[in-house]
């Protein structure tokens, strides 16, 4: 997938000088061997850090090996100062983990006390304002630590992605969607660049693209992808021009950043000016790891991208749109399983979801816009959506958002898309989230989250919860039955 960081993890063992250095070295090599067995790529840094001079040596090794995700491994108690100094100098995603004792037969010369040492390292990290990734139980055998490293890699991928990210926006955020308006200064505080542009800039580039030599190639790609779902072939040339314009704009303007995403105005003047709806192009970019959020939703684009990095799989942006009628619920009892009616909702958007995520993806027109812009006429300027029911399977909903006061917050919940026909238009799926009704009331409504949610199609709750914690962002989750929200009325 394009536009997503490649994580190159490296492990540095640390050793307190009053403990045998060989203990840390041997245990580090055992972790590397366990990772190899589990097919987890992990680079070995030869230097074992005992003091500040070792920090400089290890840091050089990390740079020479192009490591971008650091595992600080306490094979024994470890020196908390040099350990956290290395993490501070490294500056990128960092994980602290400690070795468990290996055998009750060797607790005189072979005891490492890393369980204790991690407490000191954690305190020292706080002194240096470092927030490393700590697994839920960050002490283990070589095999257990290998599994922890495997869980750290997607966390590192998200952090690396947003640290070198640029968000391109075209058009003002719509007045009718005030919830898409949010202060962008918190993004700059995180190191994310934002480049806002006028729709006229985009229109000018589009008008100049009429004879672009790549148009036939992109049209052919679209025809191949759509296959029998190509119900609006006459619109493909304009869509291809739009895709080329966005691609070249990103390449020319990525600047010092490494990754780019978009948040673009898409209606209603878009249709009357450009002569199509951009949804299908948005879906194609999402499939490459370059989300294009609808309605100039900057934080929606970021939420989509974080899901993409977390899962290494395309995500989409959906409205948390409508309830599932009771008659549909009753007639789908087998597919609904143990979910309650209020656990379900329909996720919908016009047609921006990647073809690989849809059953029978089909090029159509935007029904709501057609009602408004072309009443009583055959679809013309409202063509360009990619419709289909969203494929069943694992799902995560996630939103990363700024409040009106500039405070970052987020929510995340794991669930699934059910194998039920939504019986409606657009790119739509029936989502099941445990205790969604309570989550909707006490998190989404009460904390003023917008109607757009990022939707990923792998479980990513654990990864994104950890990412938000490392960023110091309050993150809400769907609390299970019996666990009350702070404002939930206990008197049912």
Report on this structure.
This protein is of the alpha/beta class and 492 residues long. It folds into two domains: 9-162, Rossmann fold, CATH 3.40.50; 164-477, no CATH class. It has 17 helices and 18 strands. The strands form three sheets. The protein has a six-stranded antiparallel β-barrel with strand order 10-11-16-15-14-17. Helix 1 (21-37) crosses helix 5 (142-163) and helix 9 packs across helix 11. The chain starts with 8 loop residues before the first strand and ends in a 15-residue tail after the last strand.
Descriptive terms for the model:
single chain; 492 residues; Rossmann fold; 2 domains; six-stranded antiparallel beta barrel; 38% helix; globular
Q: Report how far the terminal alpha carbons are from each other.
A: 48 Å
Mean pLDDT figure:
96
According to DSSP, the number of beta strands is 18
Q: Can you summarize the main beta sheet?
A: 6 strands, antiparallel, barrel
Write the layout of secondary structure elements.
Layout: E1 9-14, H1 21-37, E2 43-44, H2 52-64, E3 69-74, H3 80-90, E4 94-99, H4 114-127, E5 139-140, H5 142-163, E6 165-170, H6 185-189, E7 193-197, H7 199-207, H8 215-226, H9 236-253, E8 259-264, H10 269-274, H11 279-287, E9 292-293, H12 298-311, E10 316-322, H13 326-331, H14 333-336, E11 344-349, E12 358-365, H15 367-373, E13 383-390, E14 393-402, E15 408-417, E16 427-432, H16 436-445, E17 452-456, H17 461-471, E18 474-477
Parallel strand pairs: 1-2, 1-3, 3-4, 4-5, 6-7, 6-8, 8-9, 13-16, 15-18
Antiparallel strand pairs: 10-11, 10-17, 11-16, 12-13, 14-15, 14-17, 15-16
Helix pairs in contact: 1-5, 2-3, 3-4, 5-12, 5-17, 8-9, 9-11
